[in-house]
Amino acid sequence: MNSILITGCNRGLGLGLVKALNKLPVPPQHLFTTCRNLEQATDLRNLAKEHSNIHIVEIDLKNFDEYDRLINRIAEVTNDCGLNVLFNNAGIAPKSVRLGATRHQDLVDTLQTNTVVPVMLTKACLPLLKKASEVNADECMSVKRAAIINMSSVLGSIKSNTDGGLLPYRASKAALNAITKSMSIDLAPQKILCVSIHPGWVRTDMGGSNAPLDVSTSTTQIIETICQLNESHNGGFYQYDGAELPW
Ligand code: NDP
Q1: ipTM score here?
Q2: HEC profile of 84-134
Q3: Cross-referenced InterPro entries, in alphabetical order (predicted)?
C-alpha cells in the first residue's frame, strides 16, 4: 500500500500499527496518523522524527467540521494518488458493565466514537479511496488498491456473547460490524474492500494489564492479515491472526 490513514495513533494499538507498518520490508510511502493532543503524543512525535513517511494530524474525530482539514492534508500529500487504506482504530470503552450501572451518556458517547465516527470519516475519505481504487485498477481488491479496515471487537459478536453486560461497548461494535457488512456490499462495485478486525485482547490502557497479548504481537499480525486480504474476504470479520469470527 502506498498510503494509509490510521486514527488514534498516540498510544495503544494505533501506535503499534504505525510501528508495525514501518517494520515492513516496504513501508507505506505515506502513513497518516491522528491524535487528539499533539503535545502529549510524545511517542508518535518521536517516531515521526525517525520516519519521514509519518504525517501527524491533530484532530478530535468527534469534530466532524474538521474532517475537511484532514482530507485536504491527505490530498495535498498524496498528490492525485488517493488513499489506499482507511484504518478506523480510535475507540473508547466505558467502565459500566451491567444494565443497572449503564449511564445514558456512556451509551451516547460510545456509539458516537465507535460507530458514528467511523461512518462519517469513511464518508469523508470516500473520494480519496475511490481515487486510489481507480489509480490502482490493475490490482485486485486488496490494501494495495483500496480498503476500509474497521477495528471492531469480539465483544461486538452477537453469536459469541455468552457473558452479557458491556451494553454500550458491545452495541457500538455490533453496529460497526453491521456497517462493515453494508459498506462491503455498497463499495464492492468500486472495488473498495471493507472488513472488521478484532485485535485480540491486548495490553493497552483499554485492554488492561491482564490481557494475554502485547501490542507488538497483535499489531504485527494485524498488518500481516490485512496485507493478505482479497475479494474473498470482503465483508468479513477476522481476528488479528486472520481467523474468521462469527457475527
Ligand atoms: P486505547 O484506549 O489504548 O487507545 C484509544 C485510542 O483512541 C487513543 O489514541 C485515543 O486518543 C483514541 N480516541 C478515542 N476517542 C477519540 C476521539 N474522539 N478522537 C480521536 N481519537 C480518539 O485503546 P486500544 O488501543 O486498546 O484500542 C484501539 C481500538 O481497538 C479500539 O477501537 C478498541 O475498541 C479496539 N479493541 C481493543 C482491544 C484491546 O484488548 N485493547 C480489544 C478489542 C478491540 P486519546 O489518547 O486522545 O484518548
Answers
A1: 0.99
A2: CEEEECCCCCCCCCCHHHCCHHHHHHHHHHHHHHHHHHHHHHHHHHHHHHH
A3: Fungal_SecMetab_SDRs, NAD(P)-bd_dom_sf, SDR_fam
